[in-house]
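### Sample
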Amino acid sequence: MVSQLQPNESLEARLRSMVQADAQLLALLACVRAIGLKDWCIAAGAVRNRVWQQLHGQTSLCQPNDVDVCYFDADLPPDHARQVQAALAAAQPEVHWDVVNQAWAHLFNGLAAVGSLAQGLASRPETATAVGVWLDETGQVQVLAPLGLDDLFGLQLRRNPAFANEDVFRQRLTQKQWQRHWPLLTLQD
């Protein structure tokens, strides 16, 4: 059963509430925050899957396959992400961390270079995956959703129109089997 939006509640506020109520995700956020990156978030499946699980009424939340940590710092060398990943793995070795400095992602993802964390997230293959959360200096959950939150909360599985490679999107649909896990998802072609 899909949980309903409360009157006068924005999708961003709803996402913040979901994250604040998720001790596991908060612990992951605190771990990344302790690294001291200047512009970062946990994004993609670690956020998307949690929302879809809750919207489907799935009460036992699954551990994400990996935790995507995205950050943007063009002043750091391209190999810095490996150092961050090693530090996170030392702090929480049971987690499979996937760390990318968006300033250098174009060197391996075949896309154009970006100038910010938001631009990096906005280049994700699906609109519902282009969402990140982080803890600010006061420990409050913040949201970065450059493509909005409508598709995520509307259970819409849509290829990001800015992501030109439709084959990658189709391959991800097959590989990840989102509609099998969350049958209320609607594929938007």
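Residues 11-188 form a domain with the Beta Polymerase; domain 2 fold (CATH 3.30.460.10). This sample (Nitrate reductase) is used throughout the tutorial notebook.
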